[in-house]
């Protein structure tokens, strides 16, 4: 049971995670957030706004990206979309809303996650691997369409076979446990934050 007799987080601006951890989105601090929260949420978030068939999650995408970068970058690659526990907005939606504005608003949340989980995803090799995954997903999971995808590299030769949300959650956690020795806590620059609280769970 979570108790705070002085101040309770506002349910209009704070997110309740599966473990009971509460993250205030206006003054985010991810300290003590369990990785299981990220895994469960990402495995429940569909890529491509749900248009991919079979159903394919952000967690599976993240695991794939982690395998397409040099080993020292694998942990950061696995975590590169972890803020999408808030939802995976398709890129055209971000462009419509102003991509720079969306990124600016989400930046404090992403930095809070970077500090706690200790990763740096602002690396060209990770961004390139992300695009390779996108091209591969288009080939294997999306219908043919008369669209210009000239900004994408060639897809990976291996085909994607989606595994569903429960298995995706397990794969993400297994990959995390394999790579967490590469974490560098406090990777992001410090920012003024208010600590999140939780009922149960551990990092």
From TrEMBL:
What segment(s) does the record annotate as region Disordered? Answer: 184-203
User: What name does this protein carry?
Assistant: Hydrolase
Q: Which organism is it from?
A: Azospirillum isscasi
Q: Where is the composition biased (Basic residues)?
A: 189-203
Q: What is the lineage of its organism?
A: Bacteria, Pseudomonadati, Pseudomonadota, Alphaproteobacteria, Rhodospirillales
Q: Which UniProt keywords apply?
A: Hydrolase
Q: Name one GO molecular function term.
A: hydrolase activity
